[in-house]
Write a structure and sequence with these properties.
By secondary structure, the chain is an all-alpha fold. Helices cover about 75% and strands about 0% of the residues.
């Protein structure tokens, strides 16, 4: 760098230092301060934004939804576990009837087999409690066993039919043990045992 250029730079630096700091007019400074204070006041006055799920309405809605879900699950379990004599049992049977009516005809046998297993489980639970098993339930089990044995193909074949009839027979045996001397139970047990023998004959001849 030449001496001439160096002298020019020194002169420029000296000139800049002589200018000093720029001065801001008092009116401008006051206006800037007022604007800053106004922005702070607006920020403090504006309500804080909360998530939608934290709003009181939605909090209440979520609580009600959770409560309904708990009630629904609990009621469904009670319905499925109910037995004759329970307050919810008529409701459970009505729901079964409605479900069968809504199903296509081709799908009804599968659901009916499940419901027959449920009848057997109900009879066994009542027998374990040493309470009287309704005669209607005993008759329903025996008639269903004979119906299945008469047309096993309509109920999924001999193997599936035999499994259901065996469970019905086991349930009636439990009832007979809990209610010795009950003629209707003894007759239903004999009918179901005959249905089981018929299925065994059909299976052995194939």
């Amino acid at each position: 760098m030449s001496v001439k250029n160096t002298d020019e730079l020194v002169q420029l630096a000296s000139t800049l230092r002589s200018l000093g700091n720029p001065r801001v007019a008092e009116e401008t400074r006051a206006r800037i301060w007022q604007n800053a204070q106004a922005q702070v006041a607006l920020a403090q006055a504006a309500p804080a934004r909360v998530p939608w799920y934290a709003a009181p309405f939605f909090r209440g809605l979520l609580r009600v939804t959770a409560l309904l879900a708990i009630v629904f699950v609990g009621t469904s379990w009670l319905l499925w576990r109910s037995v004759p004599g329970d307050g919810l049992y008529p409701v459970a049977r009505a729901l079964e009837t409605r479900g069968l009516a809504l199903l296509p005809a081709a799908q009804r046998p599968a659901l009916e087999l499940q419901l027959l297993d449920r009848r057997a489980a109900e009879a066994q639970r009542l027998a374990q409690r040493r309470v009287g098993v309704p005669q209607e339930l005993v008759a329903e089990i025996a008639l269903a066993a004979n119906k299945i044995a008469a047309e096993p193909e309509a109920w999924g074949g001999e193997s599936a039919a035999a499994g259901v009839v065996n469970r019905q027979l086991t349930a009636l045996q439990s009832v007979a043990s809990a209610q010795p001397g009950n003629r209707q139970v003894a007759g239903a047990l004999e009918m179901t045992a005959a249905a089981q023998r018929d299925l065994q004959v059909i299976t052995s001849t194939q």
